[in-house]
Write a structure and sequence with these properties.
Elements (H helix, E strand, L loop, with lengths): L5 E4 L1 H5 L8 H12 L3 E5 L4 H10 L4 E4 L4 E4 L4 E4 L4 H14 L2 E6 L3 E3 L11 E7 L3 H11 L5 E4 L5 E6 L4 H12 L6 E5 L5 H6 L2 E4 L5 H6 L2 E2 L7 H9 L5
Parallel strand pairs: 1-2, 1-11, 2-3, 11-12, 12-13
Antiparallel strand pairs: 3-4, 4-5, 6-7, 6-8, 8-10, 9-10
Helix pairs in contact: 2-9
Length: about 240
């Protein structure tokens, strides 16, 4: 059994149940892991604004946001940030207009939902998201994005497409936290449910897919736990971390 020194958890569909809450069972398992000297962090597609409250409530030290675009300490210190060039954002806006999808844009200080600011060049951008329940539209957008060399493409649900700067992903951000606390990726357990979790699941010493995960995520994982509504995070921590401490 691998010696796990850090646990990196996705939020939506993983740590959070379908009521967007951390269950008491998950909280207890996380606290027990922490009490045994295991670092627990969140690695999410969410913005700092919408994820830091939960990270603080759990007593975490580090928070990875916007699919790895930013790494924060829970004292509010920014460790690293990688932005998306405004020229790419303008191209993404045109692509959204071409296919008439809903979209959201995340800058370092604000999230635009269903609207686009006029002064794109005046902001530092982190992520652009498309959302559509039309598979043919998703396929066309993905095909276009596959021809771009300066973006990283993933998703956090079956209906969306998330675009970050090339090289931005949760695994790369976790590696930076590992360096900071002097451990290796082989000593990390990760858990997630969507395509933006695949790289961290593949590169970690132990990659866990949720029972509700997308099929490619399950195929990439070392083990599949219960769903996010069945305390799958706690189950994985109990089996792979607490049983060996």
């Amino acid at each position: 059994m691998k010696e796990i020194k850090m646990i990196a958890l996705d939020m939506d569909g993983t740590l959070l149940n379908n009521q967007h809450q951390v269950s008491d069972v998950n909280k207890t398992a996380i606290k027990r892991a922490q009490d045994n000297g295991v670092e627990v962090i969140i690695s999410t597609g969410r913005h700092y604004q919408t994820s830091s409250i939960i990270a603080k409530e759990l007593g975490l030290h580090y928070l990875i946001t916007v699919n790895g675009s930013e790494i924060w300490t829970m004292h509010g210190d920014l460790i690293a940030r990688q932005t998306l060039d405004p020229s790419i954002v303008m191209k993404l806006v045109k692509l959204r207009e071409e296919h008439q999808t809903w979209a959201w844009l995340a800058s370092v200080d604000k999230i635009w939902r269903g609207e686009t600011p006029e002064d794109i060049e005046a902001h530092e951008w982190l992520k652009f998201g498309f959302d559509t329940d039309a598979p043919e539209i998703k396929e066309k957008i993905n095909q276009t994005l596959s021809e771009w060399e300066d973006v990283e493409v993933s998703n956090s649900s079956l209906t969306n497409i998330e675009v970050n700067a090339v090289g931005v992903n949760k695994a790369a951000a976790i590696e930076k936290v590992c360096e900071r606390i002097d451990i290796t990726m082989d000593q990390v357990m990760t858990a997630g449910d969507s395509l933006n979790d695949i790289k961290m699941i593949e590169l970690a010493g132990l990659g866990i897919a949720m029972g509700n995960a997308q099929e490619p995520v399950k195929k990439a994982a070392d083990w599949v736990t219960a769903s996010n509504d069945e305390d799958g995070v706690a189950l994985a921590i109990e089996k792979w971390v607490l049983s060996s401490t």
